Predict the structure.
Amino acid sequence: KAGVTQTPRYLIKTRGQQVTLSCSPISGHRSVSWYQQTPGQGLQFLFEYFSETQRNKGNFPGRFSGRQFSNSRSEMNVSTLELGDSALYLCASSSTDRGIGQYFGPGTRLTVT
Amino acid sequence: AQSVTQPDIHITVSEGASLELRCNYSYGATPYLFWYVQSPGQGLQLLLKYFSGDTLVQGIKGFEAEFKRSQSSFNLRKPSVHWSDAAEYFCAVGLRSNDYKLSFGAGTTVTVRA
């Protein structure tokens, strides 16, 4: 089974721009979560989608948004980029079985200049 | 407040020696517990998980972890470390009512010396 894929792997944007990141979950997994990883704040939960509905949301400003498509693929969008948004953005997928754990993709490294 | 603590920021261990990484959590009830490993520039790989049953859990790459309810701990161990085990290790917890939202510890970086 193919793992979680994320595109692009690397991205450089300018402050004030917006960016869209994509995630394709493991086949059959319907839950997709997004995390932000920075040296200062560590790994922080952004949001989780299941069957095209956002079920969980972390403590991030409204500039961070996401969506999920009917094939479970997910995108996250960050508008009006700030320097502090530079981070590794990780996508994770999980099945409907509770406690199975989340399986992470390689991440998208976003640099905001 | 709910929290996950990894007391050791950095551990250096000799190749072939044993390794133990500590994780403590503060939650109202026993959560689901996970250990992940991250190599430089990579995503997170699930090493093992605990949700019920036997408190000693076996994972991949020769790792095991023991859940101790009385100590709210879930420590990771490996009897003999290989140079390829050098990485950052994260303990994570998820509520049994909502394990799709993980809370992570700050991570422990493991350096393996020859």
